[in-house]
């Protein structure tokens, strides 16, 4: 009994008898006698052959297999790069793989990973745009610098170019930094300082500060970092660093205030955590304290201090005229009448240092003293005296206040009672008194006017008694008044007859 096998032109076959390998079959028809023959076919378009018991087959049939296969065997410390026509594949350490010969060109390159895990540049260019297991490819542009790390240990910098590194049995990291950003964040920056001074000297501007030093880093005349004392920082070359000693004077000069505080908002954000900043408005005065002790007055404008090693506090004093209201003060007058008063005072702080040195609360002090002065002024006078001369209260309060506030550098410019509010029953009684006084005054005025009117009428009568013309004028005046109240008048006859007939006065 024959058994036939057909191998296509793009195939190869492996002939087995009772599971034992016999030979590799070329394309064509093959016949064998018996039923225990079988063939496993392989498509040469897939150049790598996946064979079972490959190690055993190579030991027992090495000559046959080497004739048809390219055998790639790597050790624990080696790897291989295999070109299969236009494609590439990698073979990791301690592996055994075989590839068919004769259909697709196979090219094998071995690499000793103990000597160098970097791939030669010639292979990197051929592998461009490919992703292969166990191989990391990276491209560094002209504006970048790469940092090669193996097992978290820095190896060397990578300048512009293309690179490839084997990653079998090792951890390879290649962070890439943009040189246009002058303040990179290097991993393990302290290790670079201590163990790689050649890299720091070649590529970086190093900053190491003492306990009483701060630094300002600038790139292209723009602030990019503000460093506190005891800092260590690496910048790319091209960055200028200004180191400032703050041991004796922590105040920023005017030029630096303008740059860090009054300039760009992003610069202020960088410096904000390192500075104590105060803005003193116009007509104000600032006061600086260090650890609770007064240091100096501050003129209007921006001020800044380095905060390191100091406990700074500041406050702003308003030098303008300030108004203080003392409202709703309930006080008994000398004659036991309860009164409610509202007082207004205007004061100005002339010597802020003396005021803040002597007083914890300036406004509270002035308010309390105004209360005491008002109570003293009202409690020693009767209600009538208070109502007759409210200015006396103002004078009394001012006399009390002036020496009190001048002692602390405060000038009292004005003080005055706004309102004196009486109880309801007292107000009603006063209203009655005022009403009676005004009524009496009205009666006197009315009688005076009546007497004057009577005297005037008597004088008029005496004039008309012996003067017909004056009498006639009075008659015409009376006629005018009557005519003003008549809506319609019919005139018959001459004007003389009308005047004579309408008004006839019997003469005695």
UniProtKB/TrEMBL annotation:
Cited CDD domains: SPFH_eoslipins_u2
SMART domains: PHB
SUPFAM superfamilies found in the cross-reference section: Band 7/SPFH domain
Pfam family, one: Band_7
GO cellular component, one term: plasma membrane
Domain Band: 275-434
InterPro entries documented for this protein: Band-7_stomatin-like, Band_7, Band_7/SPFH_dom_sf, Stomatin_HflK_fam
PANTHER family associated with the record: BAND 7 PROTEIN-RELATED, BLL5629 PROTEIN
Stated family: Belongs to the band 7/mec-2 family.
Record protein name field: Band 7 domain-containing protein
């Amino acid at each position: 009994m024959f058994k036939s096998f057909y191998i296509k032109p793009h195939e190869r076959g492996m002939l087995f008898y009772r599971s034992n390998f016999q030979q590799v079959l070329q394309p064509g028809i093959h016949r064998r006698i018996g039923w225990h023959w079988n063939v496993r076919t392989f498509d040469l378009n897939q150049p790598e052959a996946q064979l079972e018991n490959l190690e055993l087959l190579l030991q027992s049939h090495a000559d046959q297999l080497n004739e048809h296969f390219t055998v790639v065997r790597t050790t624990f410390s080696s790897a291989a790069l295999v070109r299969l026509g236009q494609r590439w594949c990698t073979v990791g350490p301690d592996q055994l793989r075989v590839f068919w010969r004769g259909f697709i060109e196979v090219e094998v390159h071995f690499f000793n990973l103990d000597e160098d895990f970097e791939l030669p540049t010639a292979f990197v260019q051929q592998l461009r745009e490919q992703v292969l297991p166990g191989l990391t490819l990276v491209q560094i542009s002209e504006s970048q610098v790469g940092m090669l790390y193996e097992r978290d240990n820095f190896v060397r910098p990578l300048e512009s170019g293309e690179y490839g590194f084997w990653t079998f049995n090792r951890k390879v990291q290649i962070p890439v930094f943009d040189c246009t950003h002058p303040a990179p964040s290097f991993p393990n920056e302290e290790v670079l300082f201590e163990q790689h001074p050649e890299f720091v000297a070649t590529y970086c501007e190093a900053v190491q500060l003492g306990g009483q030093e701060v630094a300002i880093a600038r790139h292209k005349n723009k602030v990019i970092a503000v460093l506190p004392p005891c800092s260590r920082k690496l910048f790319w070359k091209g960055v200028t660093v200004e180191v400032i000693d703050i041991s004796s004077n922590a105040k920023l000069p005017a030029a630096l205030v303008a740059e860090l505080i009054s300039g760009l908002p992003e610069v202020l954000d960088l410096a904000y955590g390192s500075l104590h900043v105060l803005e003193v408005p116009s007509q104000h005065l600032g006061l600086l304290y260090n650890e609770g002790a007064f240091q100096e007055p501050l003129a209007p404008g921006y001020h800044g201090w380095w905060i390191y090693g100091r406990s700074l506090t500041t406050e702003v004093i308003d030098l303008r005229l300030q108004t203080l209201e003392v409202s709703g003060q309930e006080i008994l007058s000398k004659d036991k009448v309860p009164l409610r008063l509202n007082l207004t005072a205007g004061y100005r702080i002339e010597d802020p240092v003396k005021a803040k040195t002597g007083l914890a609360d300036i406004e509270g002090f002035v308010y309390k003293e105004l209360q005491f002065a008002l109570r003293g002024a009202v409690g020693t006078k009767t209600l009538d005296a208070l109502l007759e001369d409210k200015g006396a209260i103002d004078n009394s309060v001012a006399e009390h206040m002036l020496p009190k506030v001048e002692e602390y550098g405060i000038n009292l410019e004005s003080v005055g009672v706004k309102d004196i509010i009486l109880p309801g029953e007292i107000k009603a009684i006063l209203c009655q008194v005022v009403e009676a006084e005004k009524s009496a005054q009205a009666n006197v005025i009315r009688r005076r006017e009546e007497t004057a009117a009577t005297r005037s009428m008597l004088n008029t009568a005496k004039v008309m008694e012996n003067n017909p013309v004056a009498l006639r004028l009075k008659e015409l005046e009376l006629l005018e008044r009557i005519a003003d109240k008549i809506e319609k008048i019919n005139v018959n006859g001459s004007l003389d007859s009308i005047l004579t007939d309408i008004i006839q006065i019997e003469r005695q």
